[in-house]
Design a protein that fits this description.
2-octaprenyl-3-methyl-6-methoxy-1,4-benzoquinol hydroxylase, FAD/NAD-bd_sf
Length: 381
C-alpha cells in the first residue's frame, strides 16, 4: 500500500517507521528537519515527553530507543500526587514488578532517532516540503517542492491545528481551559530521586519531571493572565516564583543557561471524525488534544499508530478506517474525560470533592491489587 504521512513529529515519524517496517511504501512530508542533538551541553530542550513503559518497549522494538542519547532520556520509578488538603498517594514501578514506570525523553532527541531509523528503512523523506493541495477523488497530493504523489492512504499527523483535517472537511470541538502551563528546566544543588510528582492547589497544580540526578523540568499551571504577567517580568521574577513553590521540596536550584523557560495555553479538542473520503485518517494531536497534567498526549498518539498498523495487517482499508476510529475514539475520549475529572475535581473547593479524593486515595493505598492495576494502566500495560 502506498501511504503518505503528513507531519514528521514524534507521532508522524513513528507511524511512517512502523508502516514501513510492516511492508508498506511510505512517504513522509515535513516542513522542518529535526535539529541535531548537541553533545556539548547537558541542557535539555523544553519540549519533553513522558513515555510510559509499554510505548518505550514499542519504540525499542522499532529500533529507535537505543538511538536516543542516554543524556536525553531518564527513567522514573515513582509517581506521587498530593491533593489541595494534603492527601497523598504514591505509585511505584515495584508495585507492578517493573524497574521503571516510564521515561522522560527530550522530544527533539527522540524525533532525531526516529528519523535516523526512517533513513535506514529507506522511507522517502520530503523535507523541507509542505502540502499544497489534495485531490481526494484522484488520491493525489501536491506539494510545494516536488512532483505530485499518489496514495492509497494519507495520514494527517500534523498536530492540533491540522491542515489535513481542514482539507478533508473534518471539524472539531473543544475548549480552552483559561490556563497556561509554564515549563522551566533547572539545575538543582541536591540530588533528585527518580520520582515525578504533582501537587494540586487552588488555581492550578505544579509538578516536577526528573531529567537526571541534578536536573528537572518544573511545571507551573496558572491562569493565562498570571503566567503571561510573570513572563513579562523576566528571569528573576520567574526564578523567585518557582523557588517559592519548589524549593521546600527540592532545595535550591537555578534556571539552566539555555532554553530555560516558556509556556503554552492549555486546550482540549477532539476531531468530529477520525477519517474521511475512504482514504485519510487523523492520528495523534490532529485527532485529539488532551490536558497535559498526566503526560498522556504522546502516549495516546503512539497508541493510535499501533492500532492503525495492527488493523492494516489483517483487514482492507474500507474496514480499517471505521474500525480504527471506533477503537481509538472510545479509548481517547475515556482518557480525556478522566483528565477533565482530575482537573476539575482536584481544583474544587467543595468538601464533597475533597472527601471523595481522600477516600479514593485511601482505598487505592489499602488495596494492593487495585493499586497494582492502576500502576499497570499508567504504564500502558
Amino acid at each position: 500500500m502506498n501511504i503518505v504521512v503528513v507531519g514528521g513529529g514524534l507521532v508522524g515519524a513513528s507511524a511512517a517507521l512502523a508502516l514501513a517496517q510492516a511492508g508498506h511504501q511510505v512517504t513522509l512530508i515535513e516542513r522542518v528537519e529535526p535539529g541535531a542533538v548537541s553533545a556539548e551541553t547537558k541542557d535539555w530542550d523544553l519540549r519533553i515527553s513522558s513515555v510510559h513503559q509499554q510505548n518505550q518497549q514499542w519504540l525499542a522494538e522499532l529500533g529507535v530507543w537505543s538511538q536516543v542519547p542516554a543524556t536525553r532520556r531518564f527513567g522514573y520509578t515513582e509517581l506521587a500526587v498530593e491533593s489541595q488538603d494534603g492527601a497523598k498517594l504514591t505509585f511505584s514501578a515495584a508495585d507492578a514488578g517493573f524497574a521503571e514506570l516510564g521515561f522522560m525523553v527530550e522530544n527533539n532527541a527522540l524525533q532525531r532517532a526516529l528519523w535516523q531509523q526512517l533513513e535506514a528503512e529507506q522511507v522517502t523523506l520530503r523535507c523541507p516540503d509542505a502540502v499544497e493541495s489534495i485531490d481526494w477523488e484522484a488520491r493525489t497530493v501536491t506539494t510545494t517542492a516536488a512532483e505530485p504523489l499518489s496514495f492509497d492512504l494519507l495520514l494527517g499527523c500534523d498536530g492540533a491545528n491540522s491542515a489535513t483535517a481542514k482539507r478533508a472537511g473534518i471539524g472539531r470541538r473543544g475548549w480552552d481551559y483559561g490556563q497556561r502551563c509554564m515549563l522551566a528546566n533547572v539545575i538543582t544543588e541536591q540530588a533528585l530521586p527518580t520520582q515525578t510528582w504533582e501537587i494540586f492547589r487552588a488555581g492550578g497544580p505544579y509538578a516536577l519531571l526528573p531529567l537526571d540526578t541534578h536536573r528537572a523540568c518544573l511545571i507551573n499551571y496558572q491562569s493565562s493572565q498570571a503566567i503571561s504577567e510573570l513572563q513579562q517580568q523576566g528571569d528573576d521574577a520567574v526564578l523567585a516564583e518557582l523557588s517559592d513553590l519548589f524549593s521546600p521540596h527540592i532545595g535550591s536550584f537555578q534556571l539552566q543557561p539555555t532554553n530555560s523557560y516558556a509556556s503554552f495555553p492549555i486546550q482540549r479538542h477532539t476531531a468530529l471524525r477520525y477519517h474521511a473520503h475512504n482514504c485519510v485518517a487523523l492520528v495523534g494531536d490532529a485527532a485529539h488534544s488532551i490536558h497535559p497534567l498526566a503526560g498522556q498526549g504522546v502516549n495516546l498518539g503512539f497508541a493510535d499508530v499501533q492500532s492503525l498498523v495492527s488493523q492494516l495487517s489483517t483487514q482492507d482499508l474500507a474496514t480499517v478506517l471505521p474500525a480504527y476510529e471506533g477503537e481509538r475514539r472510545a479509548l481517547n475520549q475515556r482518557m480525556m474525560r478522566a483528565m477533565d475529572a482530575i482537573h476539575y475535581g482536584f481544583d474544587s473547593k467543595h468538601l464533597i470533592a475533597k472527601w471523595g479524593i481522600r477516600g479514593v486515595f485511601a482505598g487505592i493505598a489499602q488495596l494492593p491489587p487495585l493499586k497494582r492495576q492502576v500502576v499497570r494502566a499508567a504504564m500502558g500495560l
